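User: Can you recover a sequence for this backbone? Please restate the input before giving your answer.

Assistant: Of course. Working from this structure:
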């Protein structure tokens, strides 16, 4: 059973990498800032939530997503034996005030000019095997990555509650306590008029990844025929 800390970390990693937003670096008053551009305000809000809790997306490409993990997140992995492919950023100095923000979607990047005694941040480079964007038909978005912390291949997914619940494992569906909490949360959120998303993660092996890619290649060929 995963600890609460591990569950929170997985949740924040999901928010940081399962999206279609693109970071954009700008220089404002001689300081580097990261802004996010995305297909919807919802996407940017979720990436901002991860950023505000210590996981900042710094770059996104077809095959990689880079995330900075800051000590204030409480998830700092420095000197952890199971930290494989991540690496530490340059040692900086800690600001007298915490991270400098310029607007809702920006974060000042570490630099010796404007930060004092900043403790090292960690850089996580997630290798992206496949990213499947959200569509109105699928009502969900998925991404398959290799996690640099533990080397595991993980599928992260977020989407409409009715869709995600159907994709839960039998073990999760049979967890009455958890399912009751989810249904209560959805009911209360609906009553208040809130929009909701459910999210999940599954660990797969190399064989499952290969099988998925083979099926995807067949489907893409059929669509192109």
């Amino acid at each position: 059973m995963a600890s609460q800390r591990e569950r929170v970390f997985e949740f924040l990693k999901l928010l940081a990498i399962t999206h279609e937003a693109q970071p954009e670096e700008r220089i404002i008053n001689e300081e580097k800032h990261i802004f996010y551009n995305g297909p919807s305000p919802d996407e940017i809000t979720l990436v901002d939530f991860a950023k505000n809790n210590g996981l900042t997306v710094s770059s996104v490409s077809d095959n990689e997503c880079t995330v900075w993990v800051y000590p204030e997140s409480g998830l700092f992995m420095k000197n952890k034996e199971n930290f494989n492919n991540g690496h530490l950023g340059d040692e900086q100095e800690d600001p007298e005030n915490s991270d400098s923000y310029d607007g809702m979607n920006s974060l000042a990047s570490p630099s010796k000019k404007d930060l004092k005694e900043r403790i090292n941040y960690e850089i996580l480079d997630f290798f992206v095997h496949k990213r499947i964007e959200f569509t109105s038909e699928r009502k969900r978005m998925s991404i398959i990555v290799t996690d640099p912390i533990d080397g595991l291949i993980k599928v992260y997914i977020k989407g409409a509650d009715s869709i995600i619940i159907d994709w839960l494992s039998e073990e999760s569906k049979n967890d009455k306590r958890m399912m009751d909490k989810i249904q209560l949360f959805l009911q209360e959120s609906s009553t208040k008029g809130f929009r909701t998303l459910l999210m999940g993660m599954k660990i797969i092996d190399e064989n499952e990844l290969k099988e998925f890619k083979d099926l995807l290649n067949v489907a893409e060929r059929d669509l192109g025929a």
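That completes the design. The chain has six helices and ten strands.
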